[in-house]
Each structure stands twice: as C-alpha cells, then as structure tokens.
Amino acid sequence: MSAQPGLEPILLAAPVIPVVIIDDLANAVPLARALVAGGLKVIEITLRTAAGLEAIRAIGRDVPEAIAGAGTVLNPEQLAAVAAAGARFAVSPGATQKMLDAADGANIALLPGIATASEAMALIERGYRFAKFFPAEPAGGLAYLSALASPLPRLSFCPTGGITPDSAPRYLQLPNVICVGGSWMVNRNTIEAGDWSAITASAAQAAALNEHRRSK
Q: In the β-sheet with 180-182, what is the strand arrangement from edge to edge?
C-alpha cells in the first residue's frame, strides 16, 4: 500500500494548510466551520494538546466538508490512533524508519518532515512524492527549497515553520512547493475569544493566495 494514498488532492485543495493547536475541545467544530467558510477546508490539528485527537474526531463527525488531518504525529502508535479517529492525513515533523515502515501498512496518507537533501533522497527511494519542509525558515527557507528543485524534481514540499502572509506567496511560486503550512490565521488568542468571523476573514485572505501558486 502506498504511504501517501490520496494525498495529492488534499495538498492541492488550498494554497495554505492552517496548523491548529486546540486547547479547548469546544472550540474545534466552530473553528473548523470558520476556516471552511473562508475557503480553507484542509486543516492540520496538532497533537500538542490533550484535546487534539478528540478534536479530529469531532470535526470529522460534525464538519464533513472539512478535511481534518493530524499534525505532530511522532510514532507508529500515534499514526494508528489518528487513523482510528478519522484523520484524513497525518503530518510528522521528521521521518524515522519506524514511522515510514508504519506508514507503508497504514490506511492514511503520511506527510513526513525533512530538512536536508539526504532526507529528501531517502523519501524518494521509498516512493514518496510529497514531504513537509520543516522548520522552513530556520532550515534555509526559500533559497534552500529553490536549490533542491533542480536535483530533486520528484519531491514536492509543503514548507511549514515561520511562514507568514508576506513570505507565503514567494514559497508558492517555487516549482517544488505544492502548498504551505501556517498558523497566522488561527491565533490562539482569537480562538479562545471565539472570534470566528475574524478567523474566516483571515482564512479568506490565505485562500486568495492561490493566485500565486504555480501550476503543478
């Protein structure tokens, strides 16, 4: 079984994947609805809080138009857990052999993180076409990803980590970037305040970045 079943259309669904930290489970569904209303239906819910797993389950149940995935997936056990919770995809900050082996037999698409050319080559050897470039800005940013495009054209990236509304269009112009991940439209204070209209407006601005994305 492919390690990335059905991942390409998910990554193409919007130019930006919001990376969300849910502290209060009660915020999960209204947050997802606000993001979808703004045009961002692919949502990465991180497992950095105790509410993460249940948030994925709740969004999958109550916001069917959303494509809820899991972020900060660190081991095979978490990969199995998010798949069971209904996550449509999983994102890891790195790519260990155990994680990649588990993904080979899992019925969920994995977007593994890499930060070097050697790590990218290792994914290509295993048949991967997509990877998370993380942490994007500290790891070399636009210049580094641009340098990888020519020697490693078989791998496309979702850079995440330090991406801003100003830098996102420049990343999206790179031939080896399929989308970007960011958290600027899902500020934790705004979530805690329940200001869903502000999140919808910010999501709409992020969705409009699609005009900057090169044809893939």
A: 109-111, 89-91, 67-71, 42-46, 16-20, 180-182
State the residue range of the domain holding 190: 7-212
Could you identify the residue written with the tokens 């204070």?
189
User: Would you place residue 22 in the very low, low, confident or very high pLDDT band (cuts 50, 70, 90)?
Assistant: very high
Q: Pick the closest to residue 176 from 10, 59, 11 (CA basis).
A: 11
CATH number at residue 190: 3.20.20.70
Cβ partners under 8 Å of residue 12, min gap 6: 178, 179, 216
Cis peptide before 169 (omega within 30 of 0): no
CA distances for 30 relative to 33, 57, 130, 167, 173, angstroms: 5, 14, 30, 28, 32
* Active centre residues (catalytic): 44, 132
What total number of domains does the chain contain?
A: 1
In whole angstroms, what separates CA 133 from the centre of its chain?
10
Query: pTM here?
Result: 0.95
Residue 52 — φ and ψ, nearest 5°?
Answer: -55, -50
